[in-house]
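ok here's Sec23/Sec24 trunk domain-containing protein:
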Amino acid sequence: MAVRATVSRFPMDQDAQESSGLPWGVTVTPFATKDENGQPPAYGSDGHLLPRCENCYAYFNTYCELDQWAWSCALCGTLNGLSSRSIARYSHPQSCAEMMSSFIDLELPIEDSEEEMMQPSPVYVAAVDLSSSEEFLELTKSALQAALEALAPGALFGIATFSHKIGLYDVQGPIPVVKNVFVPPDAEGTLPIELEDVMPLLQFLAPVDTCKDRITAALDTLRPTTSWERTTGAGQGLDGVLMGGRGFGVAMEALFKYLGSEYGNIFALARVFAFISGPPDYGAGQLDTRRYGEQYASKGEDADRALLPEQTPFYKDLAAVAVQAGVCVDIFAVTNEYTDLASLKFLSIESGGLLFLYSNTDDSTLPQDIYRMLSGPYAFGCILRLRTSSEFKPGHSYGHFFPDPQYENVQHIVCCDSYATYAYDFDFASTDGFSRYASEQPVLQIAFQYTVVVPPEELSSSGLVSASGGMHSLKRRLRIRTLQFSAARNIHELYDNVDPEAVLSVLVHKVILASLEQGVREGRMLLHDWLVILTAQYNDAYKLVQFKNGSSVTGQVDVAFSQCPQLQPLPRLVFALLRNPLLRFHEEGVHPDYRIYLQCLFSALEPSSLHRAVYPVLMSYSTPDKQAYPRHSLSRAALITSGSPIFFLDAFTTLIVFYSSTADPVLPFPPPQDCLLRTTINKLKQERSITPKLIFIRGGQDDASAFENYLIEEQDVDGNGFTSVMGFVSFLEDITHSVLEYMK
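and the structure:
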């Protein structure tokens, strides 16, 4: 569990927090195997015996004062008695994880009746769009082949298809059999028959171990529905226009019902992979994509604001059904037409799934992405709870979860991988702020309860396999991290303890929220104004600018934060974020679906990955085996002055190796497999949650625009795209001007 605070020393009180201009909060990556310093938790058992405070329900931890019969809670100060069992347990402190470390992971018992009831085979269902092209289906087939290789033994797998009808495949007989049920075309229609009556669920879900070849054979039979089938099946649409016949909404609703009937009996978690090649336009959940083509400018409407909200609550409501049924949905959209991901995204993000968007089938990394997603560890049925000491409290929470309807600051996550990150910001509980006494420091406790499926081979190594006879086993665990912070005595101390990447994370969440609620223009203004206020507060704190009689200025505005190294990256990060498609305008050609994809991606990334996605890392090499400089600014000037022949750019989703036009022709291109540069690339690819696209460019011979587009510092922040003397320098001048206006 990695936790990063925007400031590692907290502001002393509300005045200090407001006058600093900094967001105050944390990012949490709960299922990361180590903490932010690379330390693993102390593992233990009997999590249900861990003492809890009777006042605030916090868990006992190493910051609590312990005497023979009682302990004082580090969060609220309450004195709690110890049970005789705990007294005996804590008389041998070296045997208890919670006495050894403030970061612990304890096993919880699963009741016997529950153990018998759960046959915890992991269940996976592929839902494939047949209102598509041959190329789309070929890509989907290779992705599902990769998925089959990644699945653990004992998994169950089903293939469903959707168009103007839903198809269910039975692959357990000698030849694959498909049974179809037609989708009613109207938006209020429901299926005439339950899927369970079309094919019993256990006939549909096939064991991967014994049926892999037959599943492959069934995938080979997938064909796109012909235009003739669609017209007769779907009939005439609005105004006599032919409708496509992609009954996605009905298919999802029916699948959740189908699987949900056996939630807890056959499976503990089901994952549905939805492969879609365009907007749902048939039956319940159909979306009207004509809103994309409308001329908003002529109506005086903000296109960015009009296209960001969902047009129907259908998929948000459906996500709640998925959660109840124990289903996590991953959406793989392979399309360059408007699909309205603004409406569809809830299905994945609220059910703990992922949303992927590929603009074409040619260079899509879909097979690698699905393999990576399934071969990594993940937890499910998770509950995340944040507690604070009494002086402060959690404000907003951000991330892909759904809040508990009953309890505050409790989030449910259906499925969580080791990269998924959430963020919180804090408020003071009263005007008093933090105590100046070292004994009463701010404390934060994060509890994460989760279930993992343990495959048979891991059980046999721990000697537990006899009873389960080759079956998977479920393990419920409780991971707790307790952190103690100190309060900054003054604003200089606060500024010296800033984590710019954590600040960026919280800012990105706030900006996404603002643009969803009030439009992209509002999101941009929020970001710009935030930097102006921070710069003004910093200049004021360091007494760099003085006003006399409200107008004349002494001193120079320092927009580069030259006296505070921790703040120096922030102007560049804000500039880059304003240049990012996340916040660029619709009229600049930013596709609304791509914007939604970026919102979903950025709001789940941990801070250092997000930093690369917003402001890519550019390094240079003198040969493929020797690094020259680890970091350059993203400008042509930096390239020219460095004089290095090879540059490597890491933009998180894309990796580019660029050989300058003046590079010695003797240097091998592309770099050989056994060189340092390749080792660096492979290591980065290995550690990443998605598969980055790798591009090699030879300057002067290949089209270098893919690389040059990332050199944003000479590009205008308003995004007219023309390279000019404007860019980052003029952006700082604009901030200087705004700071002076603000400080008057």
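+1. Residues 113-117, 232-243, 462-469, 719-725 have pLDDT under 50 and may be disordered.
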